[in-house]
Design brief:
By secondary structure, this protein is an alpha/beta fold. It has two domains: about 5-230 and about 305-435, SGNH hydrolase (Rossmann fold, 3-Layer(aba) Sandwich); about 250-300, no CATH class. The protein has helices spanning about 50, 60-65, 65-75, 135-140, 145-150, 160-165, 180-185, 195-215, 230, 275-280, 300-325, 335-345, 370-390, 420-425, 435, and strands at about 5-10, 20-25, 40-45, 95-100, 105, 125, 170-175, 215-220, 250, 250-255, 255-260, 260, 270, 300, 330, 345, 350. Helix 3 packs across helix 13 (about 370-390) and helix 6 (about 160-165) runs parallel beside helix 8 (about 195-215). It is globular.
């Protein structure tokens, strides 16, 4: 991309309510004992949550803060090899280049390329953005995109699963399933959800292959992703652009308009609706809108929402059952996200939660964790390893200092603390952001 594309967001003046939080104590002292886990050949299999995608981009400055890297560092394991992507990443990294007087989100200019081309073996981090469980078994480098970059050499094995097995790992993490849900929900439908039966078949095949090849395996489940900022930021009612409070007529909030009429209070409006709302769509004419409905692909109806949540539970039951039958412990990321959404977490006197931008745990795209979000996830992996394998792995090293006093982005940081945002950036109006940048939000 030539030049830097910008979108300016309205700075809205409201006070942020202080969220309740749960302070988690350090999980272990600083000494390291990996117990019965051998990290000599640690390979991580999964999607973008394993690859370390942040702010819609796979980029070296963020890949080195992925949970496998942080976990390896905490365990004093050998360096992990991965398909490092130079700045500005693939796709180009989104970042905040300005906070005051008006927030500005930029996309780094240029073209990212892989820099670790000299590594000849199987990458330790086999996370492939966009991958669903079946893709681990079927997609190859010939499918292009990130598959070509991560799998790159058919001599190492055709698929991610075969490459992982061929690497003879001593320890493997498997975190897959999010895209089997997200790829449908992000399009405002429940029709594209992976059927539970086919997920079961594929997940059993993946776990059988991995557990037979790997010395030790740890899995993770599917997060309850409808609480992430992509789904939870925009309310289904008209809000005042200045106060950000719901507009009231006759003492009642005014629903946004969908293709079937007024949206239910239980509907979810995705961040993909921001450009339509900025154009007045979804807003009644009497309140200055066009009266045109929001398109279906940016809205989840209560029925669709219920079906998505039910499918998440079904897939997690499959993961729990399959892993229990193979003595594979499961990191309960679903419960972790629920706790962070409801109560937040205190880390070194800073409060973090799942709110978009201000919460500090999610990156600019509202989908993938921030560096601190991946740090919290890594800590859960370490807890599970400690509890199941007689290990004493300490907290991973914090990826950044808790207090930053500069504009993020230009120095490879897009995370400020929640306190900083609360002082200088109470809220963002997401005018035109998603469509202008072409962000799809696929893991």
């Amino acid at each position: 991309m030539n030049g830097t594309r910008r979108i300016t967001f309205a700075l809205l003046a409201i006070l942020l309510a202080a969220a309740a939080c749960t302070e988690l104590e350090p999980i272990a002292p600083t000494r390291v004992n990996t117990g019965s886990v051998d990290f000599a050949r640690f390979h991580a299999v999964g999607n973008s949550l394993t690859a370390g995608t942040q702010s819609n981009s796979l980029i070296e400055t963020r890949q080195v803060r992925s949970f496998p890297v942080l976990l390896a560092e905490a365990a004093r394991a050998p360096k992990l090899e991965m398909p490092l992507i130079s700045s500005p990443g693939i796709p180009n990294l989104l970042f905040f280049s300005q906070l005051l007087p008006t927030p500005v989100i930029d996309m780094l200019p240029g073209t990212g390329i892989e820099t670790n081309t000299g590594f000849a073996g199987v990458f330790n981090n086999l996370g492939i953005p966009g991958a669903k469980v079946n893709d681990l078994r079927t997609k190859t480098a010939s499918d292009g995109g990130m598959y070509a970059i991560v799998l790159r050499n058919a001599a190492l094995g055709s698929t991610a699963l075969i490459q992982a097995v061929n690497a003879a790992p001593t320890f493997t993490t498997v975190w897959i399933g999010a895209n089997d849900i997200f790829n449908s929900a992000s399009q405002g439908t429940d029709l594209l959800l992976t059927p539970t039966a086919s997920f079961t078949t594929d997940f059993i095949a993946v776990m059988d292959s991995i557990t037979m090849a790997s010395g030790t395996t740890v899995a993770a489940n599917v997060p309850g992703m409808l609480t992430i900022p992509f789904f939870a930021t925009i309310p289904p009612v008209v809000v005042d652009p200045v106060t950000r409070e719901p507009v009231l007529i006759g003492g009642n909030p005014v629903p946004l308009i969908g293709t079937s009429g007024n949206l239910s209070p239980d509907a979810l409006v995705t961040l993909g609706a921001s450009s339509f709302l900025a154009a007045g769509d979804g807003i009644p004419v009497i309140l200055g809108g066009t009266g045109n409905p929001l398109p279906d692909f940016v809205v989840l109806t209560p029925a669709e929402k219920s079906n998505v949540l039910a499918r998440i539970d079904e897939l997690n039951t499959v993961i729990d059952t399959v892993c229990a039958n193979r003595s594979v412990p499961v990191v309960d990321v679903h419960a972790l996200l629920e706790e962070l959404d409801q109560n937040g977490v205190v880390i070194r006197d800073d409060t973090f939660n799942t709110d978009y931008v201000t919460g500090g745990l999610f990156s600019v795209d509202g989908i993938h964790p921030s560096s601190m979000g991946y740090w919290v996830i890594t800590r859960e992996f370490a807890r599970v390893i400690n509890a199941n394998f007689g290990a004493v792995i300490p907290e991973p090293p914090l990826p950044i200092e808790p207090v930053l006093n500069r504009v993020p982005g230009n120095n490879d940081e897009e995370l400020l603390t929640p306190l900083h945002y609360a002082l200088v950036l109470p809220y963002y109006a997401l005018t035109g952001f998603w469509r202008a940048f072409g962000v799809t939000g696929t893991h």
